Protein: ABC transporter permease/substrate binding protein
Organism: Streptomyces auratus AGR0001
Amino acid sequence: MPRIPIGSWAEHAVNWLRDHLDWLFTLITKVLNGLYDVIHTVLSGPQPLLLAGILAVLAWWLRGLPAALLTFLGFALIESVEQWGPTIESLSLVLVACLITVVVAVPLGIWAARSRVVGGALRPVLDLMQTMPAMVYLIPGILFFGLGVVPGIVATIVFSMPPAVRMTELGIRQVDEELVEAAEAFGTHPRRTLFRVQLPLALPTIMAGINQVIMLALSMVVIAGMVGGGGLGSSVYNAISSVDVALGAEAGLAVVILAMYLDRMTGALNQRVSPLGRRALAKAQAALGGMKFLQWRPATSVAMVGVVVLALLAGGMSYFGQSDGKSGGGNGRPISLGYVNWDEGKATTYLWKEILEERGYKPKVQALEAGPLFAGQARGDIDVQTNAWLPTTHASYWKKYKDKLEDLGAWYDKTSLEIAVPSYMKDIKSLDDLKGKGGQFGGKITGIEPGAGEMKILKDKVLKDYGLGGEYKVQESSTASMLSELDRSMHAKKPIAVTLWSPHWAYDKYKLTKLKDPKGSFGSGDSLHLLGRKGFAKDEPQVAKWMKNFHLDEKQLTSLENDIKSAGDGHEQDGVRTWLKKHPGLVDKVAPSADASYAKGKDAGKAPNIGYPAWDEGIATTYLWKNVLEKRGYRPNIRNLDVGPMWTGLSTGQVDVETDGWLPVAQKQYWDKYKKDLVDVGPWYDKTSLEIAVPSYVKGVKTLDDLRKHKDEFGGKIIGIEPGTGEMKRLKDTVAPAYGLKDFDVTSAGTSAMLTELDRAYHKKEPIAVVLWSPHWAYSKYKLTKLADPKGTWGANNQIKTLGNKSFPKKFPEFAGWLKNWKMDAEELGSLEQDIQDAGKGNENKGVEKWIGDHPGIVDKMAPVK
């Protein structure tokens, strides 16, 4: 019978969809990523035990006091085994997938219940969705959506949807037909019959289906960890690939706790929302007798108050933990690093993770099989991999994807691939010697990951060249499994043949013989290359330059691998840091910082928290000091805050210092409130002014009195800034009453919105009145008239001061001294603001660097080091 090429048809169909519906997959990716980010941000915001408390309150509401206590203890245990972050990631994936599944599946189930044609058409589709091996869904998921959470979410939706559709259909079909007929007899509309009769009675069955959706979703989320889905799936995958019993037990326990919580809570939710469930709950509580207090549950309002209080507490605790500044030149930009779980790949990936963090980037690492890694990098989901064996081992992947990748160069040369046996097997020295001795080895060669290039070469070429194909079977496993089998056999003095490569620490630990390859079937040896996605060098030229100059010798590499193995799984960076301590100066050699030529301050390494409002002079001076401090070896964290929260943070010490205090007038109310907890470091700019400004083409408006007379011309509106600023408060409380402007509508959308509105009106030559201040770059860009204030209602001119928490001078004496002697004039400040404006949002550091380059010696002037 001729072979039916179903696989080829499926491949062509997937390729056609990928090529022609890429816009749709991109849209789905953005939507799902956005939904996941929102849910994950909410869940990861609170401190772990606070979120455990919130979940416990929900358990108390749904199931009673024992369930609440067990919930808190269970999630506290997850935190204690360091699996909290992965658990929250998995919970976020489950919630996103289940939300979408329920929204789609329940209507489909209702439709199927009301139409036998639809039910019959859906049944084989649901059979296919439910019986197809779960991991198969990941293959098109990678091709359509790349690596990360999205393919995991999509595969989870497909895999978990059938129970919800089937149970919804079953629940509605099982509703007593006489009840439905009675409703119809009374003239009830079919829609009301559905919502008032069928759905309430079918709700227990539907909830059972939703419960199954959640359980299947959780199982699929773990599988999705194989394609970079993160969460507990990643922990389980790492544990399997490294045969790490401890990590596997901890991650598995976290999965069990999360599954039990979701299962019990969704089951109990049915008792809360279903009339039949509430009746069954009442009977169960009546049967408890004297133990009723264990099942007492707070009213919904009480439970919600508890959740809200804990959530507000969590939000308050995490508010000041946000930081938008990073030390080094990376400016917090993300870089994704992928690796196959081989020792040299893991070692160099985590080494680069540490180096990039030192330089201010936000690297993320993902362990993947070789196939998904190359495919994901070709799509642009992975920026860099450090462990491409070329030109031989990964030749097939390089041939397929080289047009979408960049070779950043070889960092290690020369490697070799081989089969190795224990040295106590005296008569086996070459691959030829294996022939006829398959019985000694149990007819197998212990291999590594099936996607590895070495495995492909072994199967396709080596076994054929040496006539070993019918005698030996290649046992696919993982690197860690192969090493475990090697260790077990060595200790038992049993024969074993394993796939290995050089360099590898196993040759130091065990006495092994590399089998010679006289026919050269394994090739002449590889170099280990760094590969970047296409366009990476253009996007990150500095990092690409560092990587092109990166090299390690065998001694450095094997010692790095050993330190990481000693640190244990989950603590790879601790191993890297231990190794770096033994190799001082290596980070500066591998990734020389632009700041390396600057002398370090005596307090180098300290990390002051600097707050700033989104005002141009605040942004400019904060980023300037961030840059200067980094050049002096500090690790500043900068935080963009509204004025009120910033002053509160200053008073409590959560913010150490800010450079944009307008005193004695504009921010007087804050100073009066918090001055006992603050210190005035000194003014750096003198004198400022507050004002309302109009375009110069608006004739006849020179003073605030004129503004009142031309109210209709301006539409009775003044464009303001942030509502919490002192200038806005003074405008409303003092200036407006004095000039009869109280009936003007003062908008308060923020500084950026005001400037946008000014730009729009200016280009249309429309009248506009805006709240402004001097100094400000707007006066350089536009021809504006400052409206005179003959009554002096804006008050005396302000100085711009540096203000710190009262402990600031003691904590950062060197920095405090620099700030005390720091001054800027209008020209310096204006040019700094303009350079930052020209650099654009998100590129403030580039603007500052340009300004520093245009002002040689400014760093030594601002922050002198003896």
About this structure: The CA atoms of residues 560 and 579 lie 6 Å apart. The two ends are 88 Å apart (CA to CA).
